[in-house]
Amino acid sequence: MNPTPESSDSVLLQVRDLKKYFPVRGGWFRGVQQQLKAVDGISFALHSGRTLGLVGESGCGKSTLGRALLNLHPPTAGDVLLDGLPLAGLSRQALFARRRDMQIIFQDPFASLSPRRTVAQIVREPLDVHRLGTQRERRRRVEELLGVVGLRSNALNRYPHEFSGGQRQRIGIARALALKPRFIVADEPVSALDVSVQSQVLNLIGKLQAELGIAFLFISHDLAVIRHISDEVAVMYLGKFVEHAPAEKIFAAPKHPYTKALLSSIPVPDPANKSPRMVLEGDVPSPMNPPAGCPFHPRCPIATERCRIEVPALRESQTDSEHVVGCYLAT
Amino acid sequence: MSARADTVGAHGDSLWSKAFRKFRHDRVGMWSLAVVLAYAIVALGVVLGVWATDWAEVSGPKWSPASVEYWFGTNIIGQDIFARSLYSTRTAFEVGLLVALGATALGALLGAIAGFFSGTWIDELIIWVMGVLDSVPFILLVAAIAYTLQGSPWAMHIAMISTFWIGTARLIRGEVIKLKSLEYVEAAQAIGVNRLMIIFRHILPNTFHILLVQATLSFVAAIKSEVILSFLGLGVKDGMSWGLMISESTFEVLAGFFNNFLAASVLMFGLVMAFNMFSDALQDALDPRTVK
Amino acid sequence: MEVLQYIVRKLIAGIPLVLGVTLISFVLIVYFGPDKTYELLGKNPTAEEIAEIRSQLGYDQPFTTRYLDYLREVIRLEFGNSESTDEKVSSILARTIPTSLALAIPGFILGNLLGVMLALVAAYFRGYWIDKFIMGFAAVGMSISFLIAIIGFQILLSSSDGLDLLPVRGWDTSTPLQYIRYVTVPTLATVFVALGYNTRFYRAVIVEEMTRDHVRTARAFGVPPAQLFYRNILKNSMIPIVTRIMFSIPVIVISGSLLLESYFGIPGVGKVTYDAIVTGDQPILKAVVVLTAVLFVVAQLLADICYRIVDPRVSLK
Amino acid sequence: MAAGTNKPLLSVRDLVVEFETDQGVLRAVDGVSFDIHAGETLGLVGESGCGKTVTGLSILGLVPSPPGRIVSGRILLEGSDLAGMDEVGLRKIRGSKVSMIFQEPMTALNPVFRIGNQMRDVLQRHQGLTRLQAHSAAIEILAKVGIPEPAVRVEDYPHQLSGGMRQRVMIAMALSCGPKLLVADEPTTALDVTTQAQVLEQIVRLQQEFGMAMLLVTHDLGVVAETCRHAVVMYCGRIVESSSIDELFARPRHPYTTGLLASIPRATEERGDELPVIPGMVPDLLHLPRGCAFADRCPKAHERCRQSVPHLDLLQSTRTSVACYEPNA
What we know:
Chain A has ten helices and twelve strands.
């Protein structure tokens, strides 16, 4: 059921049937509430030091999933186990201690750093909050961290607005690394950056993973970026995984029709490439009001009667046990 | 942005110092600040007893015109209008500062709490209190508080604070709701910073620019309200104020004596106008959209 | 039908507000308010007489009982008679509200209309001298106290030191001409002061709207300036404008007129309220406070309905 | 530039656009020149802040002013200079001869009017149609851009449509008066991948059907590769390279273009270890270096590059122009 070949003892993060619903209130004095099912029953396991690339279009719930894993949005149901220990039901202190193991990097390099604090204060804060080391050790650690992410130490007493987007992203990464986490959620960390800067930050993340053995959940809407950075890839549509497989397999032989469409939709920076394109009809339905049956069926070119009624469960592909797909018609 | 970080010195350029530099280049802002400071010195002199100590003495003839001895003339019972104007400056600063500080502090606190707990009963409660206080006519509230405090001279201040905080609280509430969904607050949560620290270290400091401007606006509003309340007999109880001078003058102007009216209204206009312009310049200098 | 349902729901939602206002007014005006015992007693009352009067007035009851009694009166709209004139409070209000409206409406309309117009001009020429001139004028208006404006216009138009054209004080609506003679000075003072704040507010709203993407789109399709201002800018700034106008209604009916009416001796609600404050006339104060709260709820309702009219994105749900 | 001896439809010459800022005058576009022939698509590529959007806005006189203004240069549309034209003249051209579509479909339409109303307005103004004629013309063009049930949708307000649908409405509006040139500023950047594919395909199809020219402003080299025949690369307000698409991707001549192409991760490639990068970052437009703006990041830069700005010259025996003293072979 899991697309990773290693034995299960190196499993760092185990997610079981995770759900995150947001109540949508009608207004004052109106008890009738609708549920927005942002994350609707997701299971996977992530091994130490590996990167799971998570792709999907806007509103598919990929950012919510990342935040639910870290308990920033407490999950509605399901389990998240870190080292086999569940995060749900932990006391405040216990959860606080577990935060050292898991951190997050954000998309917006402008919103992710407090504008009135210096770089040193920002990067130091995790050390201060968790009371790690003496004052001197903390200061040394901050300098070391800036070096790791490729910033000069004269950045210490500067403010975020004095840096470019790419540099700010590095500061955010340094803050996430301060506690030596073993798992990092990277939520679209390069989407707001220009192409030439994007590659610098991608290389930095790749380097950190190789050298520090951190496991990543790398969220992006950009398939090319995902392919570059990921060991395995999960495709999300309306709160559910529709396909999950090792990266090379999903790119070489996608099985779900949505993955196929997604892959063929990317504009390729190569004028010689004239492969035919599979263009989907219509738009992603609103997660407030998802279609019955397979969530993808209204846009699916091969949907059958059964797809309109039943929700397909994720299952191993007939040809490959590492390749999981949620479609009746996939082989 | 961009390469600038490599060209400046080792010490960073905070948003405050940027705003300060920008303000210094604002001519109108600097002039209005100078005027406000001049008024403040006058007020301080009164407090320290340097001048206007004889504001209550009956020393001259009735309605004497401006002269070397009585710069602004005298009032109906022969008191020196100039001394009374100076003394009123002190009253204006006392009312303005107290109300501005009280209303801004209360507005910041309740606004931040409401915003941080938006969507919960705490927020609903604070919104309800704001709505209720907004719906009670201001002058009635002053009168009612005056009754309740049995004619205390602070009734006016308390009444002003208890209504002026609402505007600030609404603004801060909105700003906090915006800020708390920003990623740097989520980053603090991910680190494990507790809620109180998040409010006071990460959210409130980023609303200071709003609070500063709101404080100047409350100051002006307090001075202007004092005039009307004093005229209606609900304001300054003992001492002297521009409002009391103007209400004294309402009979005089119909008799053709304008000294009291002109002295109080021109002095008050000068301070309020300078403060309004100072407030504008401050807002420009602190605007996060222009300070990048 | 949907609209009706909406109105009912909104009015129900306004109940907590009215309750809160009654609570505050009860606490401040009645519970901690002036003690009427000795006014009603002769000289040298005995302890029994005092106790009897106090129990007649309900002063010996616990807080909640007294508040609930107060609330019952409010719900039944039984405000009783004025303590100073013994006239029924409802008939006092019925007599004085039209006067207050006649006094306030011209200034209210002119202040907002001129405010929007000046703001449009200033926003269109933003950065040029005409903008600076208008905004300078607004800053002056904002810096002058209402009372000073009133006295200033009175000196200018009504005194022998000025033009001496209009009556000094008082009120007469027997003929349109008389009405205009009496309403002019208060209106000028109101407009002068309100214009400062209104122009600034409306200009900020309009400038904000001018920077929106859809304005650029309209320009990219050759929309001429007049149409751009009407269709893209004014129509889209209606929500803040409507909010400001609607929520100033309760204020101008009661508080705004208080100073004008007591200064000029105009027999409106403001004057009645002021006299009630001075004499501690509780039935009138009670009625005025509740009336204002109800007006706020109604203003909120009207504003919401207006939002629906000016902006299709707002739904009445 | 392009084949044929006929005169270009649009010819931009030495365009300079400046913005007044608190810290001084910022030159956003510095001496940009290019031609577009009838029916041709030109890609204008570059990273944020390179001046590509400002160039696009200049064509229709839409540079926000103040603080911006066109300092010099000519924008010749069929011989008449748009840069020197007054508002009244420009208004006749906007939306009729030249149309523009923008990046943000969510905010680009007026939220308080029905889309039919907004489309009719354009048709009535430029084509002199009656209300009724304009209404049916609007429905017709909505059908053409692939909006299902156009007769129903025409009565919708913008907020009732999805992002992709709104962008189609924008395209429909832009095409409604049969423009000769469409300026498309990042038309698909704000859309999801699958929607982007739909809209892009639609634009290309309609462009051929209407026979109009297009200036496609984008940061996405993939989009350029799939839609344009010719592209211009901008860096810090200047054009650094102008070339046919095939040439540009096969043999980029400017070191910046080379670096840019190398640094894009590609979905068609295996998982790579390190992407080639362009070191450093884009310089501040307020403090540009004296010579070539790219010199500090360029592996081939030498003294001359830091002293003077290289001109955009046509390379011998090619149709590629490049602004570099050391172009790649």
